[in-house]
Amino acid sequence: MAPLDDQKTTITLPPLPFADNALEPTISARTLSFHHGKHHKAYVDKTNELIKGTPLAGRSLEDIIRGAGDNKPLFNNAAQVWNHNFYWKCLSPKATKPGADLQSKIDASFGSLDALKEKLTKAAVGQFGSGWAWLIAKGDGLEIVTTSNADTPIAHGQKPLLTGDVWEHAYYLDWQNQREAHVKALLDKLANWDFATENFAAK
Ligand code: MN3
Question: How far is the CA of 119 from the centre of ligand 1 (A)?
Fold first, then answer.
């Protein structure tokens, strides 16, 4: 049996919270098999490799991200693990809607849920190259932000509520170069507003 310290060093790949084909046709089982089974898994494996034998072994993912310092490969891999853990929870095969408190805040910050979706889509499409588009809670309101490559709002003290992955690996097999159509479908059909509402309540 491995010593406890060795077991603690391990960051794990969470299973998907839905069946592989549950998000079709917006996200195919084939995309999920690569995105979760290969890309997300590779970030987990690389993070474990990079923290092994260092003071960050055994720490939480959040501690690793904040403690990575100048170790860019470690920051990138750990942040991508966190971003993907969060992203899967942002997707739901069943229709959901924002809770009452979140909906009022959406109305106050953007005018309506449709206006929020439009702004989030615009941000996702405008993110040059790879990255993420986020709805975050900021002060008393809500904001849309994007991060580049692996960067994550939690490294900047921000509270994410919902995200869309706009790396090409998230949509290329299903949508090719149509990032905008993919993001629109994601927001219209798969956005998990129950999860965003929980995040809003816990902010
Ligand atoms: Mn991804």
Answer: 21
Count up the domains in the chain and report the number. Answer: 2
Looking at the fold, whether 80 and 155 belong to one and the same domain comes out as no
Q: Ligand 1 center to residue 143 CA distance, Å? A: 22
Based on the domain organization, do 130 and 174 belong to the same domain?
yes
pLDDT-derived band of residue 9, with 50, 70 and 90 as boundaries? low
Mean pLDDT value across residues 150-172? 96
Q: How far is the CA of 34 from the centre of ligand 1 (A)?
A: 10
Q: How would you classify the pairing of strands 131-138 and 159-165? A: antiparallel
Residue 112: both structure tokens together: 């309506």
Strand order across the beta sheet in which 159-165 lies: 141-148, 131-138, 159-165
Ligand 1 centroid – CA 2 distance (Å): 32
Q: For residue range 118-127, list pLDDT tens digits in order.
A: 999 999 999 9
H helix or E strand, kind and range, residue 165: strand 159-165
Domain that holds residue 192: 100-201
Q: pTM score, two decimals?
A: 0.94
10 in a structural domain: no
State in Å: Cα 141 to ligand 1 middle.
Answer: 27
Same domain, 113 and 168: yes
